[in-house]
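hi! just following up on the protien thing from before. the input was this:
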Amino acid sequence: MRLNPFNTGDIKVRRGGGGGGFPGGGGGKVGCGTLVIALIGALVFGIDPTQTIGMLEGSGSPTTQSAPAGSSESAAEICDDNQYAMEGCNALASLNRTWQPIFQRAGVQFTQPTLVYYQGGTRSGCGSASSAMGPFYCPADQGIYIDVSFFDQMARQMGAGGDFARYYVMAHEYGHHIQTITGVSGMIRNAQMQDRANANQYQVRLELMADCYAGVWAGANRNLLEPGDMEEGLRAASAIGDDTLMRNAGRRVDAESFTHGTSQQRMQALRLGMQSGGDDTVCDRYVS
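and the predicted 3d structure came back as:
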């Protein structure tokens, strides 16, 4: 995908810190129809939603523009660390440029998420995190957290390499940001607490919606897609389906334990968004 270089004024990016010692420490319509549920602490891998119920949800937007307090690093320096970091910053800028006008047209306030790069472990507004969790979104600080070593793992162990596969992961987590700033993320927390037996089902629907949102971003920027991009994205979506992950781990496929949807469902959601031409309302079906 031929993304334009980011502008340092267009993104919020910083380094994660405080990871040492892990795991011990520490109104309007924007294509959401009549949303009644949303995801809290969504992860690329299947984490049981009962583990995320206790995460604190924040309503404010991040105040860090480029790096944590006391750091002399600029956004450009952080993004220039390696190829994956630069790709993530370019994707973040593109995602911001795609989604902000949608909110503006709907008359809804838009806030950008912060991209946080960390290594090994870090502390987020949702608590401690490790690279074993995979990329995730924290609604408490509106941060997208990524240990870029995950992308090597995704390519080597899952057969899901390629730049668009990595962009898909970024766009999926960004989709959770959209779900949060539409004002519905608190509803899933309440729904899961009140109906723990169906907590996984709530999460699956929101994960699929985030996959669809990732496709909407790609569909809105179809002119930047290159041959093979769609295949890379679908291959990545298939690789992280709950049923595929369970089989690859030698586990029995248990639909009751699904948290993100099957490979087929995830590919279908991504494809739906990509074919929408940038129309985010097609994703409403997952939560309406």
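The first helix runs from residue 75 to 79.
The mean pLDDT is 76.
cheers
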